[in-house]
Fold:
Amino acid sequence: MGFEEKVKKNKNTIYVPDIARITRIEYLSPTEKVFKIVFDDEEIKNKFEFKPGQFVELTVFGLGEAPFSIVSNPTNKDFFKLCIRNVGNISSALHRMVEGTKIGIRGPFGNGYFPCQKMKNHNVLLIAGGLGIAPLMSLIRYILHYREDYKEIMVVYGAVNPGSILFKNEIQYWSNRGDISLCLSVDNPDNKWTGEIGVCTKLIPRVDFPSNDTYITVCGPPIMYRYVIDELEKKKFKPENIYLSLERRMECGVGKCNHCHIGDKLVCVDGPVFNLWEIRNLKEAL
Amino acid sequence: MLYKVLDKGVYRDFVKALISEYEFIGPKKKDKSEHDFVLIKDISELDTNYMRTTIPPAKKILFPPNEQLVAYELGENINVRSVVESSKKILFGINAWDINGMNFLDEFFTTDFIDENYISKRKKLIVIGMDSEPTETNFSPSIGAEYAKDGFDIYLTELKNRYFVRIATPKGNEILEKYTKVNDAIAEDFKEYNKYMDNYRMKFKMSVDIKSFYDDFESIYDNGDFWKKIAKDCYSCGSCNLVCPTCFCFNVKDDIELNLKNGKKIREWDSCMIPEYGLVAGGHNFRPDKENRLKKRYRCKLKTFIDKFGKYACVGCGRCIEACLAKINIAEDINLVKKEVSI
Ligand code: SF4
Ligand code: SF4
Ligand code: FES
Structure:
């Protein structure tokens, strides 16, 4: 059931959150935690469905609302997870919370998401920088769930230093699986680091996926996109097969407050994931 | 559309009846230069002979500067409910460009997702339009907004000894039948109305050459010097947004009472011209430069909604021109874009 359907059914307005609980908090790094969230209402819980790349608006009651992308596997129906960096008002309040705390959720939002169906029977290259791994987690987990539906899978992930690499356990598990290739790179290595050094864009020239049979997803800080795109274009990947998740300020999530506009589009309803062809038509997207 | 005429002799009684029967919002003189659309209790307060208004009338009712959206109660269980306030009202004396501005908001707030807070108020609003004097900065004829072809229930145009009445809805017709007497308009009436409109259109002094703006804007979009020059004096104060009948940006905030139990979500108008507009948690600002913000404002007003709805999100009322202390002038800038691209 989509958000709009739910609103209509409950005769609510688009600004009313549903009540949910934080049922588990996992520590990822000094600045990031993962929150597992379960709706109070059984029916809402059962009907909540999302696609990789979509986001929700989370209310900390009394404080306000902020958008977060979903990191869990869409096939998990009982709960969903958000990976939250402690940077703002809302997120630092969340970081102080204990398990069991009630919050509000609206969503999922975004008509632009990672096209995991279209990607079937193709190679998939996933490129993440920093916290950009979070929105991609949902997609990676989905792909691994239906692994045999996809061809080669490669994750290129760059972080500032070894300590800031997120989802370490899961990454460890990926490398044990053997059916997903992994390139990790850090800007500032410590003396135990044996992986790549430098920005993750450096790794792209080594990718040998055929350009006509590959989907690419990119998520990272704004500064990273231009370099990544340059490298991808050198390899002649098709712009309509390159998907990027964009961030903007969001207040409403439903195409009304206008804060998230880029060019003539809105990140909350038209995105947050756009393909490179669309982005070329949006001034100031990158 | 039905075309009727209303005798001037019965106009006052008609308005009086509406004032006593309805929550009646109309223009009232505030000071030398401004009128405010407020609740009118007596016809002596009503002054439809206005030029400037404080807040655009339709927006003041339908999308007020701040508005509660949600109420909640915290405790063992959290109770959340939507807050939608609406009541039957008459909006009397709103002019054509402001009706067109409202039409834009109507479409905007019902596209992609339905905004109940807006549209439930709109559904209960009876709109009776009337022409008002344009200011010198008004360029609505260039936009095609000096005339309203829908959005109202009744539109009254003052001719010599009668009003030319355009009735756009059954509701409008009902009201006229119930509270006054109108006659069918005949050829003579149409002739006088036509003449009146020709004269009325002559009152607008400002015009813009907007026909090719859609493409011209893109051609000049990356010319940083051009935009720097245009935005040079901007204070990023946001006044242009506050006075605009079509600006709709807002923030959503939570607010909680001192008992830490009863809370609410409210929305407050925001302004795309202030630096914080593009700021996200973590401190990155996606639009730190004032020239980019101005350029964005022009895009939103003059291009984005051509793609979405086939219309401008600007009705040419000229309010933002009058409000700007830095003398930034959207009409001149539209013409400048044209000129710059043509040479
Ligand atoms: S254009 Fe004028 S009114 Fe608008 S923000 Fe700049 S100075 Fe203020
Ligand atoms: S942008 Fe300026 S001229 Fe256009 S509708 Fe808004 S206030 Fe009026
Ligand atoms: S977040 Fe409000 S319009 Fe996109």
Summary: Residues 290-309 of chain B form the longest helix (20 residues). Residues B 234-240, 273, 323-326, 328 surround iron/sulfur cluster (ligand 1) (CB under 6 Å). Chain B touches chain A through 55 residues (CB under 8 Å). Chain B has two domains: 2-67+84-201, 213-251+270-342.
